[in-house]
């Protein structure tokens, strides 16, 4: 018998098994996507946006496994195929339940974090108190493999009839191509792909990561150098002591100030560029003239997830891992965490689905409640709901509150504004963003005007910033992941409230400074791991960020853009359009800043990876 004939016979013999595996995976996907997590909130808010991608992706990798066995494996091909897929099925279900409980895929770092035997007891408690169906996990484990067995029997009987294998092969190949086009061309989405990644792909990436990445420990000299640098930027404001075991952790030894039980409203405006504010956002511009604003405020992480996490935690997002999906299990504090611990009510409002990119898992750590509804994704409806809820629920309690908001209407490709005319949507992206920023500005103005005359508003601090900017072709860059120029990193920022000075500050700052600033206003001087510094106190020029492999540092008079394997770029802080690159005439400065930015991100990355942000 020829090689092709043997291959065809092997494939025909394995086909019922492969189909049985696919059906079982489809059922597992439905059980994942259409259930709430153990805490009672939907795992995803738009399961219809996920389930077809999940089923098609599973079809593709299972079809590839069938081809591999048919072409390469001759002895014990059926038993080895069953064994392989049985193991993958078991790990797949473990991975899916881990996502429901912790928001993370199974990984070696996760296993290391939960290697303590007591973790097994914790998962059993999760099973018992699961707010979807208690102990459903046990039932699925018991019936998953019998279902695989009987489905295989069913498909074997079906294909033993006069079924044309040639027709099945042609139809299956055509469907494979349709699946590939659907996932990679017709309806793409990086966040969805991350959430739906099959276990076989996860295992492959983990093995490659272990083989290629050699983790380095922090030396005592590096820890001391970072801690001395932090004190230098702080410019002698605080009396603190650092921990040696937890490099970021510092304790305040000065007298603790009294709590200022004020309310905080923190607004993240989607994709707002600092340079466009005067042209497109008159209300925000007016707020910036009546509060404390920084003309050199930079993001500390990209994309939206990076901007929010770095702002909340006071630490730049991990420089190489996608922190929001790779490290959601770490015990990481934020300014919302500290406010809630001091008696504040904390609520998070999102106009976009927080489950889409795994933000919801992080917000559950720090907020009492999350607010999202797919019917309120337009900023107008979003702010209408927010205004009523803040006035009727948050402000009516005898308790200070933190309300954090993230808008949506100014999202790329900048055509999400409600009732945006077709003529506007057909304009260039440079013109569309002006329209959508103006729309977002008008909706923000309606919200602020609806609450500013409330009696509690006098005791409220309004903090407005962007999650990030967006490049529109400046510096030859038109994609948000293509660099770390000002077009992506330079954002508007303002604080308004009692005793806040009305001025524009030109010192360099970044999103990691906002967490210590909020605690400073609240009078909470507690031990924390923030790498930033309060913007209300005297400090030196410093801004730190990580952006899709790039690292940025403002220090002294310069801003460095660094990426391993490429030549660094150096600009003066005052060069807001970054038109004059200065690295060639300032080589020593570049080397010093490269060393410093690598030290700072090494300290933060190491602390995040090893979950040593704060003492256990």
Structural features, described:
Helix content is about 50%, strand content about 10%. With about 625 residues, the protein is α/β, with parallel strands linked by helices. The chain has two domains: about 5-210, no CATH class; about 220-540, Alkaline Phosphatase, subunit A (3-Layer(aba) Sandwich), CATH 3.40.720.10. The strands form four sheets. It has an eight-stranded mixed beta sheet, sandwiched between helices. A four-stranded antiparallel beta sheet has the order 13-14-15-16, covered by helices on one side. It has a two-stranded antiparallel ribbon with strand order 1-2. Helix 1 packs antiparallel against helix 6.
- What is the C-alpha radius of gyration, as a whole number of Å? 27 Å
Spans with pLDDT under 50 lasting ≥5 residues?
A: none
Number of domains: 2
Order of neighbouring strands in the sheet with most strands:
7-6-8-3-9-10-4-11
Mean pLDDT: 90
- Percentage of β-strand residues: 5-15%
Helix content range: 40-55%
Q: Summarize the biggest pleated sheet.
A: 8 strands, mixed
CATH superfamily of the largest domain: Alkaline Phosphatase, subunit A
Structural class call reads: alpha/beta
How many beta strands in the DSSP annotation?
A: 16
How many helices does DSSP assign?
22
Distance between the termini: 65 Å
